[in-house]
Every structure is written in C-alpha cells, then in structure tokens.
Design brief:
The protein is α+β, with helices and mostly antiparallel strands. The chain has 2 domains: about 80 residues, Rieske Iron-sulfur Protein (3-layer Sandwich), CATH 2.102.10.10; about 190 residues, Alpha-Beta Complex (Naphthalene 1,2-dioxygenase Alpha Subunit, Chain A, domain 1), CATH 3.90.380.10. The chain has 5 helices and 18 strands. The chain has a 7-stranded antiparallel sheet with strand order 12-18-17-16-15-14-13, covered by helices on one side. It has a 4-stranded antiparallel sheet with strand order 2-3-4-9, with no helix packed on it. Strands 5-6-7-8 form a 4-stranded antiparallel sheet, with no helix packed on it. The longest helix has 28 residues. The radius of gyration is 22 Å and the shape is globular. The two termini are about 20 Å apart.
C-alpha cells in the first residue's frame, strides 16, 4: 500500500525530544522520535546527552535499565559504559578494550531552548550548520514562566509548516476574518523564515466575549521543527510569546508541543490579581492553541499530499514557502511512491 505521505526523509533541523524538567541529573529517558529509538540522559555534573538507544555490544536499549554513573551511562546488559559523546569508556570484565570505532554510539548535537531539549537531525548525519537562536525574552522584559501542552497529529511535518502560510483556510477552518500575510522582504535566505499575519477573530475566547479582536502575529520558523511567534492584540494591552515544537514521531505522525509566555508588565494590576490574570490568560490561550490544531485535524488526517497544488490569488505565498523548505530535504525527496499517491489523487 502506498504511504499517505510521500516524503522520503525527515527534514534536517532541530527537534524537541523532552522537556528539561523531565531529565534531572542522573536520570535516563527512553525516547522514540524521528522514527528511531533514542536515549536521553543527564550526567551527575548536569551534561545532557542524547544517543542512539541501542548498545553496539549486543543491542540492549540503554533507556530501559541503563543507569547514569558519573559522566557516563551504563548499559543494563553487560555494563559497558558510554560517555555523553557516545564513546565507550569502560568494559568491566575485560582488560582488552576493542580498538574499533564501532564501539561508539551516535550522539546527537543538543541545545536547550525555552525549557526544551532539542537535538539536531540530518538525513546524512552531517553536523549542524545553524542553531536555533537564543530568545530575546529570556533576558529582556518580564515574561511569565513557560507553560506547555501537547498533542499528536497524523500528518507530515511538511504540512504543518504550510498551515501558517495557507491564509485561505483561516476563515473556513478557524473562523478568522480579514486574514493577510506579509513576508519579511529584507531577510536573507537561510534556515529562518520571518513573516507576519494580521487577522480578526470573532471574539471566541480572546478578549471580551462577542467582540471582534484584531490580532497581529510575527512569526519565525527555525527549520521545520521550531516555530515561535509574538502576538499583540489591536484593542487590548496584551503581549504573548507562543512556541511550537513539531517533532516527527515517525513518517505519519507529528508530536505538537505548544508553549506560552505572557508579558506580565502589560497587566497593570497589583499582586495577587496580576498573577491570577496571567494564569487565566495562560489557560485560555493554551486552550485556543490546541483548539486551532483540533480544527485542522479532520483535514490533515484525511488529506493527500499535492506535489503541484493548483494555487490562485489569495492562497498565500505557499510557493515561496515550498522553495524555502527544500533546503532541509535531500534532492528528490518526494519518493517514487509519492508519484502514485499524487497521481491517484489527481484522477
Ligand atoms: S548489550 Fe550493552 S553491554 Fe552488552
Ligand atoms: Fe490551520
């Protein structure tokens, strides 16, 4: 049977594997993302490491019974020890360490951003050529602690990126009006993509009930795995930062993790009222973020991929986005099988 999505590879880029709060020192986590088994662990000095999960010796999964010993992880099967870079450091029952690179485990480059551990994936195992930038709100302003929620979608990560550019679906699927998109024309071509959206929501949970709300959203895509935005409302003194971590679990499913921070200085109330209002906005906004994906779900989970969609005026700069996305994939990443999928779909 032909696959529902025809891309032959996950896009190169940074992906969230776990929240940092789930990996305190000395802890080991089994993680399954990007169609592979990984193990994440944190050494006693606090170094975070993400390795391929299976031991090069006889194949045990380090995330199931492996333990942190100092700066290494010890395999549960015969106690070989590997450091954060995946190098075998000790084999307890031999004086003659095998002299082969094959004892090393693939270690993934890691970064921490907004409370998430990110790993770099490249289809050819090449080293990262870029990093997800630091976030300005970490050092400037008075932003609330990040809060998270997550869901899983049966979709390809490629389709998720198109969602933000596909302005013609905003009204029928999400109910917003006067939708427009503007690309940042001065930006150089690279792993980041900057654009902004203007929309008007019909007062469905943002602002006063029943009153339309104008929303301006400045977006930044960092590859296809990490999106963040800056939201301001036309008639309310509110400023939000939203974060989207899209991680392919396998070829057909993406884990969506959303995060939110609120500019507390915009809420001119004394404590404890300010705290309560921040919590209320947080709860409501996370609900809206998830609701938006739920509105997309019946479309995404049942659509086919169009390699050459018929686009018309008002569709948004989807062609521009597709050209930008190509940099993260190998050449000819639409597999032969896809020809079947798209040809079938055209009939
Ligand atoms: S399988 Fe890991 S030490 Fe033997
Ligand atoms: Fe959508």
């Amino acid at each position: 049977m032909a696959r529902h999505y025809p891309m032959s590879s996950f896009p190169n880029g940074w992906y969230a594997v776990s929240a940092v709060s789930e990996l305190e020192r000395g802890k080991v986590l089994a993680v399954r993302v990007l169609g592979r088994d990984l193990v994440a662990f944190r050494t006693e000095s606090g170094v975070i490491s993400v390795l391929d999960a299976h031991c090069p010796h006889q194949g045990a999964h380090l995330g199931h019974g492996g333990i942190v010993k100092g700066e290494t992880i010890e395999c549960p099967f015969h106690k070989w020890c590997f450091d954060a870079a995946g190098k075998c450091h000790a084999i307890p029952y031999t004086k003659c360490m095998p002299k082969t690179k094959k004892t090393e485990i693939r270690a993934y480059p890691t970064l921490v951003r907004q409370g998430m551990i990110l790993v770099y994936y490249a289809h050819d195992n090449s080293a990262p050529t870029w990093e997800v930038p630091q976030f300005e709100e970490d050092t400037k302003g008075n932003w609330s602690e990040i809060s998270f929620a997550e869901m899983t979608m049966k979709a390809h990560i490629y389709e998720l990126a198109e969602n933000g550019f596909d302005v013609a679906h905003f009204q029928p699927v999400h109910g917003s009006e006067e939708n427009s998109i503007e690309l940042d024309k001065k930006q150089p071509f690279g792993p980041e993509l900057l654009f902004s959206l203007n929309l008007v929501y019909p007062g469905n949970g943002i602002g006063r009930f029943g009153k339309k709300v104008g929303v301006h959203v400045s977006w930044r895509f960092s590859g296809l795995g990490i999106f963040d935005n800056h939201v301001t409302l036309r008639d309310y003194p509110m400023e939000l930062r939203q974060y989207f971590f899209f991680t392919p679990l396998d070829e057909e499913r993406v884990r969506i993790q959303v995060g939110l921070r609120i500019n507390e200085d915009k809420i001119k109330l004394p404590q404890p009222f300010r705290y309560l209002v921040v919590k209320m906005i947080e709860k409501q906004n996370i609900k809206i973020m998830l609701q938006n994906f739920e509105q997309d779900r019946p479309i995404w989970e049942n659509k086919v991929f169009r390699e050459h969609p018929i686009l018309c005026e008002g569709d948004g700069p989807i062609g521009h986005l597709r050209t930008w996305m190509k940099q993260f994939f190998p050449q000819n990443f639409i597999s032969k099988q896809s020809q079947e999928v798209t040809t079938e779909a055209r009939i």
